[in-house]
């Protein structure tokens, strides 16, 4: 008699930047084997750490905090080499003059908040005052000198004439380091890999097929993004084409450097290892 497993809980971020991974995912073919939980990145990070979610595209920083309990799907991330177009710092003065500034941070992010701190501390020698705020540009800028926005909030704000200077953190990271930056990585709890390896393989294959179909023809994604958020067809084609959903050696090298800097500055309390899943992972993990 075959053992009946519980449903695997997949976390989904409600940002357009992860759409290609989910857009054509055949949820119906898995039936009751899957449960989908939609949250903002910080909520998803916490749920994953507590074991309330089994798989999800969590913040790269959140993987670093709990990497011993996780594995990473290869070929799946939200990465950029230079401009990411949705991780944006809006500021009134040039970056080098933000030493005594108050910077408003969104409550929806972990990776980009720490990326900003790495850039300003390590490369500019600055220690500004950071405060958290709801991700709305105008209210943030009423009480702060700069504001960080991510995801669709950043995209909408970039279309407005805010009168601010705008720094793309992906572009700044690549300019300073020459490396890729991975903002989100698709993570699986090790326990789930051990207990349900066959389902994990099928889920990985389904994600890969969704990514392939999405990027082969962006038309439907672009139309849905325009309907939901606004903007032009040209904007969204450029946006989805600029982002990379790969997680190979180049993306992994950039992420290792991010983790190294985060550990050096005390944002992470230890060195981080990238535990990459493959079909034989269950053998490796349980040996």
From TrEMBL:
SUPFAM superfamilies: Periplasmic binding protein-like II. GO terms for molecular function: hydro-lyase activity. InterPro entries: Menaquinone_biosynth (IPR003773), MqnA (IPR030868). It is an enzyme of class 4 (lyase). Keywords: Lyase, Menaquinone biosynthesis. Pathway: Quinol/quinone metabolism; menaquinone biosynthesis. It catalyses: chorismate = 3-[(1-carboxyvinyl)-oxy]benzoate + H2O. The keyword Lyase applies. Catalyzes the dehydration of chorismate into 3-[(1-carboxyvinyl)oxy]benzoate, a step in the biosynthesis of menaquinone (MK, vitamin K2). HAMAP family: MqnA. This is Chorismate dehydratase. It comes from Paenibacillus naphthalenovorans. The gene is mqnA.
């Amino acid at each position: 008699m075959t053992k009946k497993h519980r449903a695997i809980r997949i976390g989904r971020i409600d940002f357009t930047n992860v759409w290609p991974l989910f857009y054509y995912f055949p949820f119906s073919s898995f039936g009751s084997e899957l449960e989908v939980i939609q949250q903002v990145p910080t909520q998803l990070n916490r749920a994953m750490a507590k074991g309330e979610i089994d798989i999800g595209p969590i913040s790269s920083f959140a993987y670093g905090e709990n990497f011993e309990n996780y594995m990473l799907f290869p070929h799946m991330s939200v990465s950029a080499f230079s401009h990411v177009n949705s991780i944006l710092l809006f500021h009134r003065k040039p970056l080098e003059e933000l030493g005594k500034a108050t910077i408003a941070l969104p409550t929806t992010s972990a990776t980009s908040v720490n990326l900003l701190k790495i850039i300003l501390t390590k490369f500019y020698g600055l220690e500004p005052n950071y405060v958290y705020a709801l991700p709305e540009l105008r209210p943030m800028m009423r009480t702060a000198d700069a504001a960080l926005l991510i995801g669709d909030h950043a995209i909408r704000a970039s279309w407005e004439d805010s009168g601010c200077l705008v720094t793309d953190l992906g572009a700044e990271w690549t300019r300073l380091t020459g490396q890729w930056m991975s903002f989100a990585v698709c993570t699986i709890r090790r326990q789930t890999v051990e207990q349900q390896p066959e389902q994990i393989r099928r889920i990985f294959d389904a994600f890969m097929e969704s990514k392939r179909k999405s990027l082969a023809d962006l038309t439907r994604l672009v139309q849905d993004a325009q309907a939901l958020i606004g903007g032009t067809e040209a904007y969204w084609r450029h946006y989805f084409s600029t982002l990379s959903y790969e997680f190979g050696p180049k993306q992994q090298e950039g992420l290792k450097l991010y983790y190294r800097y985060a550990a050096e500055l005390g944002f992470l309390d230890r060195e981080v290892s990238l535990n990459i899943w493959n079909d034989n992972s269950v053998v490796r993990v349980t040996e």
